């Protein structure tokens, strides 16, 4: 079942997030932390995908920049996969937290 925030269209969602952020200082801090978490998560996803590509190119002996410090490529793949999973989890969880907090605000404002 959709909550109040999910029923809004794109412009109304942006306005609701902005209104939530402007309502008080703690909400503005929450929004800034969530944005920071999203940015770090996206950078981590991009980095891990890039390292996957570099590890694959090193394994095929096509291209070696020297970023890989371990001689065991399986260990490199495991580290890249863990980074990708955790960063994707951060991005997804940040979106969920934002939706949850704004939805609580919208329901509380309505009462």
Individual helix count? 4
The coarse overall form would be elongated
Straight-line distance between termini? 21 Å
**If you compute it from the alpha carbons, what radius of gyration comes out, rounded to the nearest whole angstrom?**
20 Å
Describe the structure.
The protein is 82% helix and 0% strand. The chain has helices at residues 4-7, 10-23, 25-59, 73-110. Helix 2 crosses helix 3 and helix 3 (25-59) packs antiparallel against helix 4. It is elongated. 12% of the residues are buried. The mean pLDDT is 88.
Name the features.
0% strand, elongated, 111 residues, mainly alpha, single chain, 4 helices
Topology:
Layout: H1 4-7, H2 10-23, H3 25-59, H4 73-110
Helix pairs in contact: 2-3, 3-4
Short description:
By secondary structure, the protein is an all-alpha fold. The chain is built from four helices and no strands. The mean pLDDT is 88.
